[in-house]
Amino acid sequence: MDLGFKADRVRFILADPSIPANIGAAARAIKTMGFRKLWVSNPRVKDYRHDPDAVRLSTQAEDVLEESRETASLAEALEGVRYAWALSGYNHEFGPKIYPLRTAAASSAALLAETAGDSASGDIAFVFGTERDGLSNKEVLLCHAIAAIPADSEMPSLNLAQAVQVCAYEVREALREAEGKASDLLPWELRFKAGEPASASDVAGFIAHLEKALIHVGMTRAGDHRKIMNRLQTIFSRAALTEDDVVLLRAVCAAVIKPRTQWLESVKEAGASEAPDAGRWHAGKDR
After folding, report:
1. 3 state SS of 61
2. Entry pTM
3. DSSP code at position 197
């Protein structure tokens, strides 16, 4: 979990869910975004934690599913909540004001930041209704505001677990934005280290080698190829070549000027018992 204590104050509440598989998928959805607090009020299947479909769809989040809090009613699930958002695709005649989910997430992140030092500040809750009908008017009135996912008008209804995933993502990004980290890649996303940048002298050596190779194949003539070479140098400058890139490209140039078969023949003609280390032709370093 890389969101720290703020994630511990975000609660996802499923009101009256009827399909255990969605509860399991919701557990996975919030864990992938760094959250763990899943509350389930009045589920149709009371033993949802051990339902095969719920367990199967909670892949690697079985702990969140097992630790989920079950309550008899939504009102009970909202105990200890500072601010509750009802997830709904439309406003209600007598309900609270509706906001886009992204606005709701940003507002929640700001509230969490403002109350960071208050031990009695309470949670932020996002409340989701049943798979078929969503939240009832009565349930919406238990919340402070409505958050709407801006889905397409021709298909505005999301699967319950999908809605939880979208919501958890938006809240995560809002929390990261508040900390100035929204555009940062996470350490585990950078699995492979980038190669060391090639030095100016390495690139210049490659360009000179490339020029010889082009002259060798007759693409250019000595003294009459500045325009082509300038264009190629511009292209490779944009490429931000690494040391390994230069090794590879110079190996290609060498092979163009003198193919490896000819090189081996010349070695044999010179009387060498065996060819030099073929590694000199290997492009790049072993990883």
Report:
1. coil
2. 0.72
3. B
